[in-house]
Design goal:
2 domains; mainly beta; 5 helices; Thrombin, subunit H; globular; single chain; 4-stranded antiparallel β-sheet
Amino acid sequence: MVSRSELTLCAALFLFACPSRALAEKLQITSNPSGATVEIDGVVLGTTPFEKDYPGGYFHKTRTSFGTRLEHPMVARIRLAGYVTKELTLTEGPMNWISLNGRNHGEYWLLKSDHFHVELESIAETFTGAVVANAPGGDAGVPPELSLEELVRQTKPAVVYLKGLDKAGSGFFVTGTGVIVTNAHVARGEESLLTVLSTGQQLDAKVVYVDADLDIALAKIDAAAEKIHFP
């Protein structure tokens, strides 16, 4: 018959071996200004300042195969009326969980931090400038007909090559203040994109808006407008 002390010892050893299951840790998301809606993996969970308990295995590698693991990446969207929506990749991975005996228990992801802070940018301050079309030698209200070659020549300076950590694509300027439009899948999960102009000039563009449903994203050149040199 097992004694009470032996049962207590077994329970203590089990809790020690599986800390991520027994103990939860807190994920915090804050923003300035506060009161922004927090959406994680497409589900609205609350507003900033936001707190939610997750298993310890979401923050650090579990010690045994019994621990709870995060088996998918996590992406958060922080949105507030009048401000540019921010998208955050909360996790890093995938990584392979391999036990001491060499057995592969599958892939897992880990949260990059237990606290994420977002500085929200006012739409009025971010998207300044206007799209201007000049029609030399004609009525400004009636664009002249252009040949395909001339159309390509005039629009080529606005087209840029964009590169993130593990993906790339194209985009084009839509204002004279450095705002670029591209596809959401190019910018999703990226904080900034390397931007290569048609002249070969390279600049950093900060991702300021992502709409996965419409597959549209906006990025803004960090440099002053006068540093953007068109041919």
